[in-house]
Amino acid sequence: MLQFHRKFIRKLEADGVHMTVHISVRGRTLSLEPEALLLAHQLHLKTEIEFRT
């Protein structure tokens, strides 16, 4: 999803806006492919994962 907004995210960063990727999961387990977080990592975005039961 982030790949379509890469230029917009970079512009926001240049303007001083800080972004966070927030993943909320209902349950106790989460399985992600490495590629799922790769772009967030490349853009140096903070990532939070929340487990809700």
What's a concise summary of this model?
The protein is an alpha+beta fold and 53 residues long. It has 2 helices and 2 strands, in the order αβαβ. The chain has one domain (2-52).
Structure description:
The chain is α+β, with helices and mostly antiparallel strands and 53 residues long. It has one domain (2-52). It has two helices and two strands; from the N terminus they run αβαβ. It has helices at residues 6-14, 35-42, and strands spanning 20-26, 46-52. Strands 1-2 form a two-stranded parallel ribbon. α2 (35-42) links the parallel β1 and β2 (46-52). It is elongated, with a radius of gyration of 13 Å. The mean pLDDT is 88.
Largest sheet: 2 strands, parallel
Ends: how far apart?
25 Å
Numbering strands along the chain, what is their spatial order in the largest sheet?
1-2
Fraction in beta strands: 25-35%
Give the total of beta strands: 2
SSE order in H/E notation? HEHE
- Count up the domains: 1
Global structural class? alpha+beta
The coarse overall form would be elongated
Instruction: Report the uncertain regions.
Output: none
Radius of gyration: 13 Å
Helix content: 25-40%
User: For the residues shown, what is the average pLDDT?
Assistant: 88
Count of DSSP H/I helices: 2
